[in-house]
Specification:
The structure holds three protein chains of three kinds. By secondary structure, chain A is mainly alpha-helical. In chain A, 76% of the residues lie in helices and 4% in strands. Chain A contains eleven helices and four strands. The N terminus of chain A is likely disordered. Chain B has a single domain, classed as P-loop containing nucleotide triphosphate hydrolases (Rossmann fold), CATH 3.40.50. In chain B, a hairpin with a 2-residue loop joins strand 4 and strand 5. In chain B, helix 3 packs parallel to helix 6. The radius of gyration of chain B is 17 Å and the shape is globular. Chain C has one domain. Helix content of chain C is 76%, strand content 1%. Chain C is built from 14 helices and two strands, in the order ααααααβααααβαααα. Chain C has a two-stranded antiparallel ribbon with strand order 1-2. The two termini of chain C are 28 Å apart. The C terminus of chain C is likely disordered. Classes of the chains: A mainly alpha, B alpha/beta, C mainly alpha. Chains in contact: A-B, A-C. Chains A and C meet through helix 4, helix 9 and helix 11 of A and helix 5 and helix 13 of C.
Amino acid sequence: MAQESYSAGCYEAMISTQLLISGVIFGLSIGSIYFLLAIGLSLCFGLMRIISLDQLLYYSLGAYITYSINLASGSMWLGVLAGTAFAGLASFAVERLIFRRIYSREPTFSMITSFGILIGGIGIIKYFWGVVPRPVEVPTLLQVTIFGTEVPVYRLIVVAIAAVVYVGIWLFLHRTIVGKAIRAAIEDVEHVEGLGINVSRLFTITFIIAGALSGLAGGLHAPLIMVDPSMGLETLAFVFMVVIIGGLGSIKGTLISALIIGQVVSLGSIIYAPMAQMAPFVIMLLVLLIKPTGLYGSTVLKR
Amino acid sequence: MSREILSVRGLNAAYGEAKVLFDIDMSVATGQIVACVGRNGAGKTTLLKSIAGFLKPTSGSVIADNTPLTGKKSYDIAKFGIKYIPQDKKVFFDLTVRENLELGSYATKDYNWDRVLGFFPKLQLLMGRKAGYLSGGERQMLMIARAILGSPKVLLIDEPTEGLAPGIVTQLRETFRELARSTALVIVEQNLPLVCAIADKVYAVRDGRIVAELVGPEEISVAACERYL
Amino acid sequence: MNALKWWWGILLAFALLGVSRTFLPLPFMNEVVIFSIYAMGCNFLIGRVGYISFGQPAYLAFGAYACAFYLFYFGTNPLVGIMVGVLGGLVVSLVIGPLFVRLRSDYFAMVNLALAVIVFYLTQKVLVDITKGDNGLWFMTRITSTPGLDLTIPGQFFIFALIVALAVCAFYKYLDDSIYGACCLATKINENKLQFLGYDNFSIRLLAFVIANTTTALAGAMYAVYLGFVSPEMASPSRAADPVIVTLLGGVGTLFGPIVGAIAYTGMKDVISKLIGNWELFIGFLLVFIMLVADQGIWGTLAPLLEKLLWRRKATLPVATKR
């Protein structure tokens, strides 16, 4: 009798560790998506002092292109590649046509404008793809066993891609001359110009990188959710909270807070699903209560 | 007399509605050190900034080496060889000394650091250090070193000795003399003894106008300059 | 006499609004009047304090749901319902205000948008038991008619809404003219200098935040009573920019901007939804267009012209009488 209840307890504990491990992996993959999205917003703010809500549009575009290419060619990875490229192109066009004119204005000014782009872009998506949510199949249904828990390989791939992007961004900013110029311009745009470097080209490069990463995030996220026109607006709040908690303009902060929010959303939904949506907001309020500029945000606003 | 490299004619500039510069005429030749003196707020910094293209002049012309520069973008002007060194001594704090110099090289495609480090041997020892940890004098050296990569035609230097120790000021004085062999220098400076020691020409700026032009050692003296402060 | 001078602009504006009722459909007019109250709060925040808030739908929803809870679960009197709504907005903004107004304006804008999304989730998913989720709360039939102006009749509700809007508008004009209004403008332009004068930025901003968001909650409560139901749609993030757009469209910081903006916006929405149906596409690009080309807004462009016209007439009048 006692033996039986012992083994039952053991069984329960095993289920909860399994749940925990799959929850952590799930959280890591969600956090990775948030990171890919938030890094663009954060970089844009750091360098150009704009709040670029339209990143969420490139995210949706990336997801939709992935959907369409996947449907046409059967290869989801080709879709992600095309989605990333298309998002980069779209962001290039938007930067040239719109943002170029508003860099010198207040950050909140760019926020309103980019919200207009986001809403208008959703209209365009509705025009081409309609309002019905679209499913994208997961490219690999393989599972690996980690500590006795079956974990979908696709989620691990997402995490790996985000890690590669983080390292890539770090290397780009610290090892290439353009990256060094971007870091210098984050400190002071005018001095970089004074050396004879075309800063507006740096802006364009940064914006395209941000847009492409958002598109990548959308493409990678597509198989995990349904692709629908307002997916950008739904993700918006979480990406915002990631950026605010991490601190605007800080890449390290963005990574850390994306991982935190990913875990909170994932593990929170194991405990009590509705809480998962609310908890990040509470965390954000707490962080802001202690430090109004986020964990790694700089206190001084230049320009 | 050597060749005129920079010529400013009838330059007017304004910050929004407030006019700051009125009909400025200036002429600078290669090998010359030209100093601008005047009270705070007289418009000296604005003058340098509008030559360097950071402030669009409302009228007038800036011609360097027979090329009109008015209306050009500031980075094009810098690339052309008119380098402005602001007074805030703001090197890029988060970048190392080497990276700061690399950026100067990147813009001008001049990767020959030997000449630059010949002026400031001390920087050689600090290469790997983040610029945020340098002293004021070292920062000023780095600012100048960064700017003279690519052998600029004109250096516009804003208050280079402000807040620096006397020893470093003496060192900078020699550096300026050395630099003036190949380029022209326009220096905004409050330190009158230094001005008198190095300047070939002094413009006195008051209320946005050039009120006096002193040329040669006979005219330039601390007393003469003080009259316009 | 002075009082007349102070009031005539507002009275004229609302008289015009009242008259338009005769030739424009009533639902449209009701929408316009409530929307202009909604935008007035936002206008005050942007124009006077320099805070752009994308979270206004959240405060609208606080007011609407407070009113709805009262009308759905407790009482039947719409006037009390509106008061409960205003009180709800007041309490919420007093609670979160101290935290929010410490933030830099860019963080403020982002945190508010996050708040709107969270309120949307809250009403749609988390508090399903009391908010009935996406179905919304329906209480149209529970509202009892009130003596005097009967709020259950749309025609009389319009008169009520018009009076409320007039009072709010006059209140904001009074604020603009007061020392407090000047202080608000000063925090927007240079907060350090205001501090040196001995004013406290924090309390000025907090008061502005509370005033503006209570106004928004009032608009929410009015919506609740007028429509007879509330749903999470109110706090939908896709509508987050509506009050900001109306404010910009009308002209930031102007007294009548919100009214003009509300008329233009509601009108366009009606016409364009019917014509092409893709409302988002239009409103998104309209917003970009306003920001890039016409950031003065409609009233901001018209008002100086009108003033010039009036001024010239006044200037030429004495000459004419002399002849």
